[in-house]
Amino acid sequence: MKILLVAPCKEGQRWKGRKKSRFLWPPAALTLLASATPPGVDVRIADEATGPLPDDGDWDLAGITALTASAPRAYAVADAFREKGVPVILGGIHASFRPGEAAEHADAVFVGEADDGWKDVIEDVRSGRGLKPRYEAQGYPDLAGRPFPRRDLLAKNAYGVINTVMASRGCPHNCAFCSTTRFMGPKLRTRPVEEVAREIASLNGRIVIFTDDNLLAHKRWARDLMEAIRPLKKRWVAQCSVEAARHPELLDAAKRAGGMGLLLGFESLSPENLKDVKKGVNKVEDYLDAVRAFHDAGLFVQGSFIFGLDADTPDMVDRTVDFVFQARLEGANFSVLTPLPGTEVFNRLEKEGRIRTFDWSLYDKLNVVFEPRGFTPEALQEAVKSAYRRVYSLRGIFKRVPLLTRNGPLGWAYNLNYRRGVMRGWE
After folding, report:
1. CB-based contacts of 411: which residues, under 8 Å, 6+ apart?
2. 218 in the same domain as 76
3. Beta partners for 307?
4. What is the DSSP track for 360-374?
5. In this structure, are residues 373 and 314 in contact, taking their beta carbons and an 8 Å threshold?
6. How many CB atoms lie within 10 A of CB 352?
7. Distance (Å, whole) CA 38 – CA 119
8. Whether residue 182 sits in one domain with residue 83
9. pTM
10. CA 219/CA 248 separation, integer angstroms
11. Do 115 and 169 fall into the same domain?
12. C-alpha distances in angstroms, 406 versus 229, 258, 331, 409?
């Protein structure tokens, strides 16, 4: 039996013979799914970001996963495989929240995390029974004892960093704009520390990216994890909540364990906005002290901000950019509020009639797809571009990341590459 697992990419992100991107990561969901495939099955991975898809139809099953922005491309790829007589199953976060839509392009849809149900899909195909129209995860899978991702199936030398590691799933925060809690649950599920450490020890190369949504959320587990990976001498980056700044001993442990930097979801400088999107764990008045705590531990900070929330006006963009410089953040992400299916924001904006388009390819956090309150859609779009230009200008980088500092060389290397990526994203 031959299975092809496909990671489709929207136009502009597909491979066109260019050099690899320093910010290109492998499709972790597919490497995990491949590891859950029973023995005796020939499984391959095709990532459109690293090369063209196979053009033959010699597959017993094509499994396709997609985020919302790549959903139209996923549907086109699915249609093409089905025209060749290849059965198709669609899964992932978008298909899970829009299963009826996905079913129009597939023989089957998998709703939820597929770790435990994947073997049933394969058995239905292998036995000749054929695919059921719908498969659904029964609760949230236990993460203990899982096989390591099949990184051996990825294209060689195609990724800026190939060592992505998932140590936990889910998030205890219930932010209205985020689909993580709806897809992976409101409880943080952690892998056994010794299993995570063993996986990291098995990796070639020194750099690791944790794909967890909130690596430091479970403080005792996180401290144990830091202690376990410290002897491995790896260097890593991850995401966590701003509130981790209240635990300086944990930040020090993260640095000693090889932590280089963390992405923090500040989201907004408006308390009204934070309340509106259920991000009450964030306190604007503590932001500067929080950044200082990460910097005191020697950790690089990348801040993430959302523009277009209901209390936003153009001056909020200026205030946010000023904060980025004042706090000397080594990096900053500016996203347009994007009503992703499955989120409270999507449901509210759809009910209010404020969604302008359901062209999912535009749901990439760069394009305005709804009617904001404090901007015209065009003004909001330009405000985000302006924020990026100011922060990632050479002068802006120098003001935020003085070269002759502890994080200076790393910060400049990161910023120059991120600057190129941002400019390409607006093309």
Report:
1. 300, 330, 331, 397, 400, 401, 405
2. no
3. 336
4. GGGTTTTS--B--SS
5. no
6. 10
7. 7
8. no
9. 0.94
10. 11
11. no
12. 23, 15, 15, 8
